[in-house]
Amino acid sequence: MNDGAESAAFSGLFRQADLGLRREIDGAAASPGVGIGPAYVVDRRRVHVLHRHIERDLVEAEIERLHEALRACRQQIEVVKSRLPHGEHRQILKAQQMILRDPDLIQRTETLIREELANAEWALTTVTDQILEVLGNADDNYFRERGSDLTYLIENVLQALLGEHGDEIDPPPGSVVVAQDLSPADTARMHRCQVVGLVTGVGGKTSHSAIMARSLQIPAVVGVDDVLAAVDAGDLIVVDAVRGRIIVRPNPEEVAHFQAERDRHLAFEQKIRKEHAFPAVSQDGLHVRVRANIAISEELDLALRHGAEGVGLYRSEYMFMNRDTLPSEEEHYRMAKHVLRRCAPYTVVFRTFDLGADKPTKLLELEDERNPAMGMRSLRLALRERDMFLAQLRGFLRAGVHGPLAIMLPLVGGVDELGAGLDAIEEARDQLATAGVAHADDIDIGVMIETPAAALTAEHFARRVDFLSIGTNDLIQYTLAIDRENEAVSYLYQPMHPAILRLIKEVAEAGARHHVPVSLCGEMAADPRYTWVLLGLGVAELSMHPSAIPVIKHIIRSSKTDDMKELAERVLKVDSASEADEMVLAAMRARFPEHLRHGCSEGEGGP
């Protein structure tokens, strides 16, 4: 919007804002920035589905009706996709179309229609609810948020089956879209509508809508409780996606303040994005490899566009979710081959499947466990389900001829477990050699350091592997004896706890003694507050969600090694996490105030 139109719009909205009280509501900052504009409210209701009996001679016609609805929805997405420039947003929409072709979803729905003589709407809803239950029980936010994507897609199919047409959102330029939830297609439409902000009642930073908002550079705050009850159409809203909050009906002084902050934020954003392709080399020559964490290949474009030097963590367990049959060796091979070719010449680190009771899959018989985080999961489960493990390893090894591939074993507790994992890799290699199948002989193999036991014995691992990768999400959980998914103890989740800092240092020093690179792939890597401390402790590589990469790389290019080491040494001497947090925040805020506004988790550390 031009300045004159913006001023006229705001003056009219202030008159309307007088009719309601100012409200400030917290959420999660999903796409950084500041947006100010009138609310465009999207209030959709769930489609009501009845269970209806059909005659047996109408079964095939009912199945064809299902396929027609699926085709119609794929075509709707194609229309949206055709209006967008090439980029990661198009890839996400392509992934949505693939979900609507998913043979597992379709075959299970067809089976219910045939066996239960049920209408397509009821059969599709039943199958979808079963899949959503599996996704909803996962501990990993990424898998839980895939349920939101599936829900929206199926709602559209149901509308097509019922002859209804969901309203296509058409917000005016300069508005803030407010909804309980939005599909990736909805978010993509905002590209041409020139919206200035996005607010949803559900979702998280890894939802596809959040990813698309980041790729389209639309400030977004998600997870805002009762947002539809708090906001009326036309209300003036500030989307503070720096701190993770919205302000409904702000006063004129607040609007002026946030307009200035928005302009400053955009100027900084443009600067660091222009430099995203530059390597992360400090002012005194330290090169830090900055890689991406991804879970599906569609995220790779986003990672490369943000300047990732490869993939430091590919979460392969996503291939085992939402299906009735195990992924075959061929599927693992094709997926890894695609990612390697797209990422060349950079390395891709594939973590073997980190499944278990905390990431449930109907493909395995797993007992309910009181504490699944400490139960049958990750490498423990892989070694138990050996055929499943070997199929994945063979697929990876075959793909290794197409680009630099590394294999990483998760949650390794000791050298015996590591030895068993290495033996499995050798067995997979021998099987391929015996069958005369081309595969990579020389690949890097590493382990994730996720438990105190692994960190304290990192010396033993470093003698046997090619790299170490610290997974701080679990390391913090296990070291501090807290469930990171339990909100009641979330305040105890302290990355700057003295025990965590000492364990990171222990692993970094073990790697250095044996000339084995040490990376860090937990959420700490993406937080600009911790960049100096991690590198000062000796971590050589960082891997993070793609949108965090430009900010972290810019910090490294603006830093000197001695300053980072000095801060790390000071922090190691303090007695408490709170004292360490204050020290680190003060140091980083003094040097990198804008970086902290752009990258701190949910706005922590902002002004």
Automatic annotation (TrEMBL):
Principal subcellular localisation of the protein: cytoplasm
Domain PEP-utilising enzyme mobile: residue ranges: 172-244
Domain Phosphotransferase system enzyme I N-terminal residue range list: 27-146
Catalytic activity: L-histidyl-[protein] + phosphoenolpyruvate = N(pros)-phospho-L-histidyl-[protein] + pyruvate
Keyword Cytoplasm annotated: yes
Superkingdom of the source species: Bacteria
Any one Gene Ontology molecular-function term assigned to this protein's record: phosphoenolpyruvate-protein phosphotransferase activity
InterPro entries membership: PEP-util_enz_mobile_dom, PEP-utilizing_PTS_enzyme, PEP_util_AS, PEP_util_C, PEP_util_CS, Phosphohistidine_dom_sf, PTS_EI, PTS_EI-like
Annotated localization: Cytoplasm
Any coiled-coil regions, as ranges: 56-83
Entry EC number(s): 2.7.3.9
All residue ranges annotated as the PEP-utilising enzyme C-terminal domain in the record: 272-559
Cofactors, names only: Mg(2+)
Keywords: Coiled coil, Cytoplasm, Kinase, Magnesium, Metal-binding, Phosphotransferase system, Sugar transport, Transferase, Transport
Function: General (non sugar-specific) component of the phosphoenolpyruvate-dependent sugar phosphotransferase system (sugar PTS). This major carbohydrate active-transport system catalyzes the phosphorylation of incoming sugar substrates concomitantly with their translocation across the cell membrane. Enzyme I transfers the phosphoryl group from phosphoenolpyruvate (PEP) to the phosphoryl carrier protein (HPr).
Family: Belongs to the PEP-utilizing enzyme family.
Xref: PANTHER family: PHOSPHOENOLPYRUVATE-PROTEIN PHOSPHOTRANSFERASE (PTHR46244)
UniProt name for this protein: Phosphoenolpyruvate-protein phosphotransferase
Species assigned in the record: Nannocystis radixulma
Gene name of this polypeptide: ptsP
